[in-house]
Amino acid sequence: MLIVHGSSDGLPKFNEIIQLCIVKDNPIFIVRGVCAWYREHYGGFELSESPTREVGLIELGDLEDPYPLVEYIVAGLRMVILKRFVLVKGLKVLVLDTGSIPLALNCDSPLERSGQECLTMSNPAVLRVIFGDGSDSRKLHMVSGIPKTVDEVHDLVKASFRLHQEFRLQYMDSDFNEFMNLTSVSEIQNMGTLKVIYTPLEEPYITLYTVEPTASSSPVPNTESSSLASSSSDATLCTSTPHSSPEVHTSGLSWPLVFVVPKFSYEAELELQQKNTEFETKGTHFNPGPKLKGIILDGLAQEMMKYTKYPKDYQCEEVAAALTKAHPCLGQLGCKSGFSGWKQSLKYKMQNYRTKLGRLGHPEIRVNSLKHKREGQGKSAAHIKKPRKAEVNYIPLHPKGETEDSLESERIALLTEVAKRDNEAVIKAKMEKTFSYRRQEVVNQRPRIEDFKNRWPALFEQSEVNAEFLRVTTKPLRSKFLSQFDNFTVKLMQILQNKGGVKGQRIKRFLEMADSCSNIDLRRECVLRSLVVYLNEDPDAFFKEYESTEEAEGDITATVMGIYSIRSQGHQEPDDIGVVIEGVKVMDNISTIINAFIVLFGLIYALDLAYPDSMKYTFEFVQKILMNLDGHKLNVKIQQLKIKLFA
Predict the structure, then answer these.
(1) pLDDT tens digits, 150-168
(2) Residue 22: Cβ-neighbour burial (10 angstroms; 0-12, 13-18, 19+)
(3) Contact present, 84 and 52 (Cβ < 8 Å)
């Protein structure tokens, strides 16, 4: 059982009940905190063990919401869904009631005594919500009544119908009998009607500004196109329209757990609907003509382009399967799966789309054109640069209005900002702004690490490595790694202890050290080293230990990639821990070995590097099992370990 106690960054804090005690007729919960982050595809929170594993006491009167929660398992993930509406003072946290029976919060509960506010529940209400031209209308059940503010209504509509695009709301006005913009919840009545008006992603607009006339100004011809400019005799009005970016999703999207087939043109949807009905009644499959098939493939390809320019085989298969599931009449009888032909057609369509994008100068496609390849790489299929480790923003477009020259100026200014103290906010903003410019340099030019570090010194800080990893993969680095690693530690140690032979004896020595360690980071390090041995890799060749700085300096220059630690004789704590790439000490003074490993994993993504051959299985385990990045195709060793972990 789980209870909610407190909040962090606008998200609830979950605690797992270990035991319930009664002290002087007052129930007291012995709880252990758990980590949680919101999973949009599931509409709930994914749970994992807290790295600190702290145990605490919570009285019943201290709970913001006394409603207990039960976790459930989805695809091996521990999930929980909240049941209540809660309004936290100073920070609005709207949680949908997903239960079948609406439950009202007690406004006389200790929620008020803790300095927070209870959301007043009113009578349930039902609204009709219209999308688009009115052909799509849906029912919205407000089990807890109409919210108090327009923002809460907006959030409720957005969450209930899973809307991703920005929109505004209109209501049906009884006086004028037409839709008007919603500015107050008093305009909403039970059984009323709301309309969703989507906000254009890139609204064209005209900027008018005054240009003082000069002696050399030529008269404005009196034509229809210039009537706006000649309407004033004292000044000239000039217009400018901003260009729109050819890519809407500049931030990138990770591949969805469930691919949703987009809506096609009206005629195509109408014909497919008729054929689906015919298939349900007669069982007749439909073979679309070239025109309709082109419309379907175009729609699917455009949707896939939002996630990846180079879809993998399993991704094309998922899309083809989703198409035949959404439109059963499109199933194919000549193959076992029923959609192999669609899968192959999607591959050809994506190739054609990449060709079109390359002609338009898209950086992720242009980098693989023949004229951009180096000498000796004269084949179009040679040395393709594409996401290979589930990168979402591999080579993004530049921010709107920015050019390579302007971003180079930002980079030069960043060198000055790095030298200043307490300037993290400015550095973070400039690193965010120059991300696309930096990625193009990394992927296109493949610079030497030493040269790249001199050009981008701000990147080689732990906070910026975490931020860069988030930009590339859209997933947090350190928190995700530690939570998942700690979550698997107990099961992993049981698997490692069963290893026999010489490697088994070596693993047992590491695990004995882990059992005797009270320091959580040392325990993690021992388990990590044991994992490396289990995967038939040598941890001593990667985690190098030295007794002096002079000894380390002589060996670092010959190291391709690794982690070093310097520990003087008679000292238990290391004097220095750092990361080495291409014989260059890229980062030092890292607190622990496990943090150095996390930083190195982040730098591999930030610098678009390949995993070292001596540690490729360990890094693959981290990527595909711990970080859940492209875990569909696994090496045999990792697949066997995964089966044991989830057994």
Answers:
(1) 888 888 888 777 787 788 8
(2) exposed
(3) no
Query: Looking at residue 455, what is its pLDDT?
Result: 94
Asked whether the beta carbons of 455 and 407 are under 8 A apart, the reply is no
Contacts of 402 (CB under 8 A, 6+ apart): 433, 436, 437
**Do the bridges between strand 561-566 and strand 543-546 make them parallel or antiparallel, or are there none, so unpaired?**
parallel
| Measured distance CA(477)–CA(34) in Å, rounded | 18
Q: Is 589 exposed, middle or buried (0-12, 13-18, 19+ CB in 10 A)?
A: exposed
- 56 contacts 27 by C-beta, under 8 angstroms: no
| Rounded Cα gap, residues 339 and 543, in angstroms | 48
Where is 584: in which H helix or E strand? strand 584-587
As a dihedral over the C-alpha atoms of residue 222, residue 226, residue 229, residue 231, rounded to 10 degrees, the angle is: 50
Sign of CA dihedral 386, 388, 393, 395: negative
Range 507-521 average pLDDT: 88
Chain-centre distance of CA 473, in angstroms?
A: 6
Question: Dihedral, CA atoms, 415, 420, 425, 427, nearest 10 degrees?
Answer: 10
**Shortest CA distance to 132 belongs to which of 108, 155, 165?**
165
HEC letters along 98-114: CCCCCCCCCCCCHHHHC
Place of tokens 């060198």: 415
Residues 6+ apart with CB under 8 A from 68: 1, 2, 3, 17
Percent of the chain, pLDDT > 70?
80
Match 């009202």 to its residue by tokens.
104
User: What are the φ and ψ backbone dihedral angles of 561, each rounded to 5 degrees?
Assistant: -155, 135
Distance of CA 264 to the CA centre of its chain: 27
Q: Which two tokens stand for residue 595?
A: 């943090």
pLDDT at 8: 65
Of the candidates 128, 182, 119, 116, the residue with the CA atom closest to the CA atom of residue 153: 182
Q: What is the pLDDT of residues 538-596, one digit of tens each?
A: 999 999 999 888 888 888 888 999 999 998 887 778 899 999 999 999 999 999 999 99
**What residues does 586 pair with on adjacent strands?**
none
Say how many C-beta atoms besides its own lie within 10 A of residue 468's C-beta: 24
Q: Is the pTM of this model over 0.70?
A: no
- Contact yes or no for 530/510 (Cβ under 8 A): yes
Radius of gyration of the chain (CA): 30
3-state secondary structure of 326: helix
**DSSP per residue over 368-405, as a string?**
TSGGGSPTT--STTTT----SS--SSSSPPPPTT--HH
Q: What is the DSSP pairing of strand 178-181 with strand 44-49?
A: unpaired
Least confident of 239-248, 422-431, 511-520, 618-627: 239-248
Q: Which of 626, 566, 617, 571 is nearest to 596 (CA)?
A: 566
- Residue 38 phi/psi, 5-degree rounding, is -80, 130
User: 64-78, 85-99, 431-445, 447-461 — which is least confidently predicted?
Assistant: 85-99
Task: Name beta bridge partners: 58.
Answer: 29
For residues 497 and 511, the answer to whether their CB atoms sit within 8 Å is yes
Amino acid at 256: P
* Token digits of residue 588: 């030092």
**CB 185, CB 148: distance < 8 Å:** yes
Q: pLDDT for 297-351, tens place per residue?
A: 999 998 988 888 888 888 899 999 999 999 999 998 878 888 888 999 999 888 8
